[in-house]
């Protein structure tokens, strides 16, 4: 083992992408193993690697961790991105859960039937502009600080940045009514670790395409 965290998932965003984002934001290099066949996935289950028979799987600090939320919490705590006390942690948790609800819609979008795609895209736009982004716009405006919690870079900032870029891919002008979020996006983009992650050739994955959808359905078929 090189000592680097080892990530096992498909070669695409999915539920591993927020984990890649958080590790990259913390300046941590990692290795990846990509599942391409159902046999590889079944072998992980058979060998007892997947506690609940699900990926993502992250091997870190001698542990084989599953469950996205648990993995993210561990990484955030380990790299000091999880607030200074219980109250800050609660705020970070609330923000992260909200962003995750929005990201779940984006996660499922590539798997929409063709006749539902337009409707689902409208739902993403509506939720982003009317439910989720107004919350973060208000938070940033009210406390007048660069970051969402405690005026210190945290997991919540990373998750929000990922969500902004993911929604913008589908709704390019989504931030037009959110000046605070526009400033936030610029600041985040210029943080050295995030700037590096946004460069071509980084471990960041492109938007899911037909090949990714096909691979997911093949690997996880019942």
TrEMBL record:
Q: Could you tell me which residue ranges the GST N-terminal domain spans?
A: 3-83
GST C-terminal domain ranges (all copies)? 85-209
What's in the keyword line of the UniProt record?
Answer: Transferase
> Under which EC number(s) is this enzyme classified?
2.5.1.18
Q: Which GO terms describe its molecular function?
A: glutathione transferase activity
Q: From what superkingdom does this record's organism come?
A: Eukaryota
| Similarity remark | Belongs to the GST superfamily. Alpha family.
Q: Does the keyword Transferase apply?
A: yes
Q: Which GO terms describe its biological process?
A: glutathione metabolic process
Protein's UniProt name? glutathione transferase
CDD domains named in the record: GST_C_Alpha (cd03208)
Matching SUPFAM superfamilies, A to Z?
GST C-terminal domain-like, Thioredoxin-like
Question: What InterPro entries does this protein map onto?
Answer: Glutathione-S-Trfase_C-like (IPR010987), Glutathione-S-Trfase_C_sf (IPR036282), Glutathione_S-Trfase (IPR040079), Glutathione_S-Trfase_N (IPR004045), GST_alpha (IPR003080), GST_C (IPR004046), GST_superfamily (IPR050213), Thioredoxin-like_sf (IPR036249)
């Amino acid at each position: 083992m090189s000592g680097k965290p080892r990530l096992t998932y498909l070669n695409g965003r999915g539920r591993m992408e927020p984990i890649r984002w958080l590790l990259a934001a913390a300046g941590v290099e990692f290795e990846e193993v990509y599942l391409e066949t159902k046999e590889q996935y079944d072998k992980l289950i058979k060998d007892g690697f997947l506690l609940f028979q699900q990926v993502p799987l992250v091997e870190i600090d001698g542990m084989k961790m599953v469950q996205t939320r648990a993995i993210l919490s561990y990484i955030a705590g380990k790299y000091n991105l999880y607030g200074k006390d219980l109250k800050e942690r609660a705020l970070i948790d609330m923000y992260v859960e909200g962003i995750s609800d929005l990201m779940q819609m984006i996660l499922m979008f590539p798997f929409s039937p063709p006749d539902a795609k337009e409707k689902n895209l409208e739902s993403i736009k509506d939720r982003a502009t009317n439910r989720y982004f107004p919350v973060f716009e208000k938070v940033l405006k009210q406390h007048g600080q660069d970051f969402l919690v405690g005026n210190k870079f945290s997991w919540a900032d990373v998750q929000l940045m990922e969500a902004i870029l993911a929604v913008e891919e589908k709704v390019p002008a989504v931030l037009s009514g959110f000046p605070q979020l526009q400033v936030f996006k610029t600041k985040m983009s210029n943080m050295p670790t995030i700037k590096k992650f946004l460069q071509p050739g980084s471990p960041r994955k492109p938007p899911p395409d037909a090949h990714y959808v096909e691979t997911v359905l093949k690997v996880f078929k019942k």
